Amino acid sequence: PGVEGLECSSGDTLVNAMQKTVVSCESIFVPAPVISIQIFPKDVTKMQDLINALFQFKREDPTFSFQVDPETKDLTIAGMGELHLEVFTMRLNSEFNIEVTSGKP
């Protein structure tokens, strides 16, 4: 039987004190990203929404990553291929109403 409404990740340990059971969610191998691109919101007022969406993507897919350059504030996303990153940029528009432009890092 599954458990709904529980937020957990690989490597977490779940304990049911009433039934004295322990379930360990084993860690998985996550390969390093192979491609990265810079993205920019077309509407700069949506920058925080963009970052929040990227955090959600990171929780959903451990092969996706992003970073913000502390000096230039440039936003770089990285993943397993061009299609992988294209899907994320399309989801930003369709699920979060954030249009982005992309370029080379």
Structure described in brief:
13% of the residues are buried. The chain has helices at 47-60, 82-96; strands at residues 13-16, 21-24, 35-41, 65-68, 75-79, 100-103. It is α+β, with helices and mostly antiparallel strands.
Question: In percent terms, what proportion of residues is strand?
Answer: 25-35%
Evaluate the radius of gyration. Answer: 17 Å
**Integer average pLDDT:** 87
Summed up, the helix count is: 2
Count of DSSP strands: 6
| Overall helicity | 25-40%
End-to-end Cα distance: 45 Å
Order of helix and strand elements from N to C terminus = EEEHEEHE
Give the strand order, joined by hyphens, for the main sheet: 4-5-3-6
Provide a descriptive summary of the structure in words.
The structure is a single chain. With 105 residues, this protein is of the alpha+beta class. It contains two helices and six strands. The strands form two sheets. The protein has a four-stranded antiparallel sheet with strand order 4-5-3-6, covered by helices on one side. Strands 1-2 form a two-stranded antiparallel sheet. The model has no long low-confidence stretch (mean pLDDT 87).
Task: Describe the protein's topology.
Elements: E1 13-16, E2 21-24, E3 35-41, H1 47-60, E4 65-68, E5 75-79, H2 82-96, E6 100-103
Antiparallel strand pairs: 1-2, 3-5, 3-6, 4-5
